[in-house]
Structures are given as structure tokens and as C-alpha cells.
């Protein structure tokens, strides 16, 4: 935004005015000011962080500092609502006030907030990074704002699908079975939710330029191999062998007719058989990858065919 005496910009040259090319200096308020009398431009930045104020009396013992709330882009309307902090003396009254304030939330934001809390609980219990939660709630918010009427099974599927897409977007893909274990939901509902989310996002992005559209990388065996080996407690040296084989298969375009989790299970089974890791059975590999034994053995024999090229 530009007016007569103030310019708000995102990127500035600290030493030269971009209007008249004169030198910039800091004034007493630590703003960059142009030295030219004809220009007089001031470069200011807006601070969006919380605003701290103190109401302390010099003789008061309690800390009376207060901070103005930051506007949350996910919950813009609810960010203006007061926050009630209680202590042990008036806990009952404070809880009643908290409930009254919660009733002021709009249905849309309350629903999104409940899902956000659900994601936070999953993240804390499973050591999932915060960025996964942030992207998952953004996916869910997009879908929810497009279509707010969902049946219970569809809603659960969309919540799970948003989490699945968030993992994929951040190059840490999870298979459907892993998402199912996280959210305690059957795989069929999650797959249905993924289809619905994909369709809605495609509709929302149909008028976007290609560089603005969401880009999801293809899942490769190398993305899954380390985690699967971790579940099976496979030694590091055998993990490195599995990685070498996975990269070789991908680089040479072998086993293109099989999905990544089938290839991953086949690679692990190949290493188990080749190096006589008797503590690991094909049933254990099958349970982790959610792949039947026949498919694992087919991948195993195909890998054996390319043994000389790996």
C-alpha cells in the first residue's frame, strides 16, 4: 500500500531508496528514511506478533502483564474472543465463563478446531512433526469450506485423507494401513475419503496456473524402506543394502507393474532370504506392508531375476 508519506513493502534495499535512488538512513524510531527532501519515503514493516502491555503497580507483587492475542488465520472470527484464565479459588465460575465463550464460536470454526485438536492428539501420541498437522488442517479446511454437509463415515474419511495427503506433501508418505493404525479407521473409508478430497481439490484448483497447483510427489520404495525396516528391527547394514536395491530398481525402471509397498516388501524379503535373517518371517513383512504373501513372493522372484543388475 502506497500513500504520500509511507510505503509498505515486503523486500527493501537497505542502502538505496527505490523511488529516487537516494541513500537511506535509520531515524530515531529505527525506520529507514530517504535523505532526499523531494522524496522523504519511510520504509515501515508491520508487526503481527502479540502486543504486550503491563498494568503493574510498583508495589504490586503479582505480575499484571497482559498480551493482546494474535489473529489465527484458521480461526479469524474466534481469535477476537476473550481468553479466560482460572485459578483454584474461582475455578467453577471460570469454567462456566469458558463454556459461555465457547458457545460464541461459529459452527464452522468450532468444527475445524475440534479436528485440529484431534490431529494434535495423534501427533503427540505418535511423534508426528507439527508441519504435518498444519498442512492436514489446511487440507481439511479447504474441503470443509467447499462442502460442509458430510455423513459421519465421509467426515472420518476426509479427516484421515487430509492427514494422508499432508504426509505425502511433506515427502514423508505413509501407506493407507499406517494411516488406518493412526486414526483407528478401516482402510476402505480412508480410500473413499482420499478420492473425495482429490476431487474437491481438483475442482478448487481448476482455474489455477500449473505452478500454483498442489504438487504431490510419486511414492517410491526408497520412501518406505527405512520405516518398514525400523518396524522389523533390521540392522543398519542390511537397511543400507535394502536402500541400494530400492534405488537400483527405481533407476532402472524394474517392477513397474507393482506398487511401491509391494516392491518394498519384496526387497526386504529378498535381503532376509539372501542373508539368512531367520528372526524375520514373511508373515511379519506381510503384516507391516499389508500385502499378501503371494505378491511378496512374486516381487522376490522378479528381484532375483535382476540380481546381476542390482
Automatic annotation (TrEMBL):
Keyword match RNA-binding: no
| Stored Gene3D superfamilies | 1.10.472.170, Cyclin-like (1.10.472.10)
One Pfam family, please name it: TFIIB
Key words, A-Z: Transcription, Transcription regulation
Q: Where is the Transcription factor TFIIB cyclin-like domain?
A: 109-199, 219-304
**Keyword Transcription listed:** yes
Return one Gene Ontology term, BP aspect.
Answer: transcription preinitiation complex assembly
Full protein name: Transcription factor TFIIB cyclin-like domain-containing protein
Q: Which organism is it from?
A: viral metagenome
Amino acid at each position: 500500500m502506497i500513500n504520500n508519506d509511507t510505503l509498505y513493502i515486503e523486500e527493501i534495499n537497505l542502502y538505496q531508496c527505490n523511488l529516487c535512488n537516494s541513500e537511506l538512513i535509520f531515524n530515531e524510531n529505527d525506520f529507514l528514511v530517504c535523505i532526499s527532501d523531494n522524496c522523504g519515503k519511510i520504509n515501515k514493516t508491520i508487526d503481527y506478533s502479540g502486543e504486550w502491555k503491563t498494568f503493574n503497580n510498583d508495589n504490586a507483587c503479582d505480575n499484571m502483564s497482559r498480551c493482546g492475542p494474535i489473529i489465527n488465520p484458521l480461526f479469524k472470527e474466534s481469535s477476537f474472543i476473550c481468553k479466560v484464565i482460572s485459578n483454584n479459588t474461582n475455578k467453577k465460575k471460570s469454567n462456566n465463563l469458558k463454556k459461555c465463550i465457547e458457545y460464541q464460536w461459529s459452527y464452522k470454526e468450532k468444527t475445524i478446531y475440534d479436528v485440529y485438536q484431534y490431529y494434535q492428539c495423534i501427533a503427540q501420541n505418535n511423534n508426528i512433526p507439527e508441519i504435518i498437522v498444519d498442512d492436514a488442517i489446511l487440507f481439511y479446511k479447504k474441503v470443509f469450506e467447499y462442502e460442509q454437509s458430510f455423513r459421519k463415515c465421509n467426515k472420518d474419511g476426509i479427516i484421515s485423507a487430509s492427514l494422508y495427503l499432508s504426509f505425502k506433501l511433506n515427502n514423508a508418505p505413509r501407506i493407507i494401513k499406517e494411516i488406518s493404525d493412526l486414526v483407528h479407521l478401516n482402510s476402505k473409508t480412508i480410500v473413499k475419503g482420499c478420492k473425495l478430497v482429490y476431487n474437491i481439490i481438483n475442482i478448487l484448483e481448476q482455474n489455477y496456473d500449473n505452478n500454483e497447483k498442489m504438487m504431490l510427489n510419486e511414492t517410491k520404495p526408497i520412501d518406505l524402506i527405512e520405516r518398514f525396516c525400523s518396524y522389523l528391527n533390521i540392522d543398519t547394514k542390511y537397511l543400507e543394502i535394502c536402500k541400494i536395491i530400492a534405488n537400483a530398481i527405481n533407476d532402472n525402471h524394474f517392477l513397474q507393474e507393482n506398487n511401491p509397498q509391494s516392491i518394498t516388501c519384496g526387497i526386504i524379503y529378498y535381503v532376509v532370504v539372501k542373508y539368512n535373517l531367520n528372526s524375520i518371517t514373511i508373515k511379519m513383512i506381510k503384516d507391516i506392508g499389508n500385502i499378501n504373501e503371494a505378491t511378496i513372493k512374486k516381487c522376490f522372484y522378479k528381484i532375483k531375476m535382476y540380481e546381476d543388475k542390482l
